[in-house]
Description:
Distance between the termini: 123 Å
Strand content: 5-15%
CATH superfamily of the largest domain: Ribonuclease H-like superfamily/Ribonuclease H
Number of domains: 5
Low-confidence stretches: 69-85, 686-695
Structural class: alpha+beta
Amino acid sequence: MKAHYTAKELAGMPGLEITERAIRDLADRESWPSQKRAGKGGGKEYPVLALPAETREYLTRQVLKNAPAIHKPASVPAPCATIQPAITTAQLKQWQRDIMNARVAIMRLIERAAPMVGVNKAINTIVKASVNGELEMYAAANARKGQGRTLSYDGVMKWWVSWKKSGGNCMALTPKDTENYLEPVWAEEFMKFWSKGQNPFLTDVLEQYYLSTGSKEPSYGQARHYLKKMGVVECEKGRKTGNELKAIKPFRRRDTSEMYPGDAYTADGHCFDAEVAHPFTGKPFRPEVTPVLDVATRKIVGWSIDLAESGLAVLDALRSACETHGIPAIFYTDNGSGFKNQMMTAPGTGILNRLGITPEYSRPRNPQAHGLSERGHQTILIKAAQQLCTYIGSRMDKDTAQLVFKKTRKTLDNGEKSALLIEFDDFVNHTNAAAEKYNDTPHRGLPATRDPITRKKTHMTPNQAHQLGIERMKRELPPEQWLMPGVEQPDLYHPAIERTVFRGEIQFGTLSNGLPKRYFSKDLEQWQGSRVQVAYCPSDPRKVWVRDLEHQRLLAVAELAGNSSPYFANSTLEEARIKKGQAAIKRLENHAEERRLEMYGPQPVMVENPDREKLAIVRQQMEEAEEVQAALFVLPKDERDRQYLWQDIDAKLKSGEQLTAETVSFHRGWQNSSYFRIWYEMNNEKGQELAIPDL
């Protein structure tokens, strides 16, 4: 509303239904105050306070009509008074903000109209307009419920006083939230039946409550209303516990933007959600897969597959990651036995200690701390399992899973190979392909880039993030802190234990016959009685790596039975066995001859004069045959060559080839030698039985 009007603007208004000239004459007769009009043309302007009362009311109504509209609150609770000064506008409910905005708009109208008609007149005009329906939207300033709400003089005046006292603070016009919900008397007992891990239905809870208390209150509607008023977490307490309850609580999101590749690796074993063929038996089983992820880039840097969960599976996964991408600063895992054991954490001999890796463990029963690994299982391994028909996860149709289970077992029971079971080698390739696909797929947890041509926003893949991280590392860090593959030692990733050296020998493990394994090296001579670190390869028991505990220097590579030799020379044993056998045969022949004499008495012997020429020919043939046999079978002097000869003879016997008596005798006798037994234990790596002919 303007404070001054010209005679031309006032002409025709209520109270001044006269011409422009007549208005100027009236102003001169009644001595209205005036001021010179600014702008071209000049003239006079008269203040609103000097105008007739009817004209002033008309101008005030025009201001109210042209005031901007406000949003009407959808729902208003019970009537309330002033606000609580402790809260801020952001903490108000929507209905409180709507009412506050309506009251502020009314205060602005009063401020604009008061200089012309006064505060009381402005309030009366606003109230009258509200009652007549001219200010329907501003009637929302009344906090009462129901339709047809209007304003009153006392109410608007109270708001005006609060507005002025607060210095124009809109919070002074905010209604108080009087919705102080009182806890029903039945609530405590009712929650005992509701907060159970079985998650009972509300109808069942009320039925048990009625039987227990004998009361008919609350009704279904009252109980449902009470539960809706409660917070989600409070309502689910007791019905959910542990990880399920944590899943609906607030959490802390960890930031990895400042980390470099290799700062931390995380790993978690996963029992594959599909059956594959066992590599040894061919029967269905679920292998253990252990992926290792780089925390900064989410890339799979290594993984392992084992027949069951074990420390060796974790060790192999860590070895794969360190050899291909580099040794991390931190290895973050849970407290499982595969990650927290002597092989991993023992001082001096633990793989983490030898590699200089700091182990970090999450709190027990807190899978949320392993969000990267858990999500990786969902994205990689579970998705890979769903591609197989032997998938047994929660999304698999139960009837189909049962049909596959029966069909695979029936086929195997018939001695046939099941086409539904993937072979173990194919499973390894299948898992490797899933890991490579994951590393080349955009990851939502990584930064996004916008294509300069298509303007399409795309997240980086783990491979891209890892490459950019390596480049940033080389720009910002000194070379000695760069991530480099750890392949400098042959026994670096082998498990290790402590043992004592005794006369160049180290005793570790047992053979299949129950005898101890003894590893020997001449280089251990000066370390008699010392405690040393012994690193071993689980798949190759032929040698171990011996290092001192203080400086980790390689002392020797000790070989299994490195100081063993036959008790007697093999040639001596062979000759003795043949001689012993010939003597036994001679005794048996004499014994048989004695029995014949006892039965029939002496028998006459007819001796014919052999033809000297025929006898000479036969003798010559026998000599030639002996020479041929001597040329074909020559007993080697070296023990290793004798072992190779035995293998050749063994292959010929299995193929059905006819051999000489000396060759067969050597084959049988060599199986009892100590060298053969050592060779047999060394080649029995995977628990497979070698084909040994009966003695």
